[in-house]
Amino acid sequence: MNYAEPVQTSRKRRCPPGVTLAEKLAFYSLPAPNGCRLWSGYKNSAGYGWLRWGGQRRRRAHRLALELKLGRALGLGMESCHSCDVPGCIEPGHLFEGTQADNINDAHRKGRLFLPPALHGERNASAKLNATSARAIRRDARRQVDIAAAYGVSQTTVSQIKRGQTWRLA
Ligand SMILES: [Zn+2]
User: How many angstroms is it from 78 CA to the middle of ligand 1?
Assistant: First the structure.
């Protein structure tokens, strides 16, 4: 499933009333070069997108995106898990329904767990990135300033990744 692109994109605009959930999700997100669709609206400290929908309190954007894809609410105790490991990603193809245990097993399989905290890049200055996007940045042939803009990080972070000063595990 692909979202229709909004007519114009700007982070500061407010979404007009009366839109569908798909339109609202598209409105507050932008496609990234690595195939992710990154939330550009409100995010919590963990990097997950949140939005108001259906007159309810703020809900997690990646959960709503998965519910939209599935056409139903997630099961009791089920989570919206990211195959891409990017918390702010709402690309439906990167989301799957799983238990918290599935999520942890997935992390385990990908080697995200059991890394010493000092080396675990997701805890440091480039916390907006994960190993997948760090690898993509390292391979990205564009100018560093353009890469930085595409991923929402500083050019310094891009430079450090390129020189292997951070994300050595990527
Ligand atoms: Zn993604």
Answer: 19
Dihedral pair phi/psi, residue 139, rounded to 5°: -85, -15
CA of residue 15 to ligand 1 center, whole Å: 23
* pLDDT (tens digit per residue) in 65-77: 999 999 999 998 8
pTM over 0.85: no
How many angstroms separate the CA atoms of 117 and 95, rounded?
26
Going from the Cα of 63 to the center of ligand 1, the distance in angstroms, rounded, reads 13
Please, how many CA atoms are within 13 Å of residue 123, restricted to the half-sphere of its CB?
Answer: 8
Q: Where are the domains of the chain?
A: 21-109, 121-162
Q: Which residues contact 47 (CB under 8 A, 6 or more apart)?
A: 86, 87, 88, 127, 128
pLDDT tens, position by position, 122-148: 544 445 567 777 888 888 888 888 888
Q: Which fold would CATH assign to domain 21-109?
A: Homing Intron 3 (I-Ppo) Encoded Endonuclease; Chain A (3.90.75)
Cα separation, 156 vs 146, in Å, equals 12
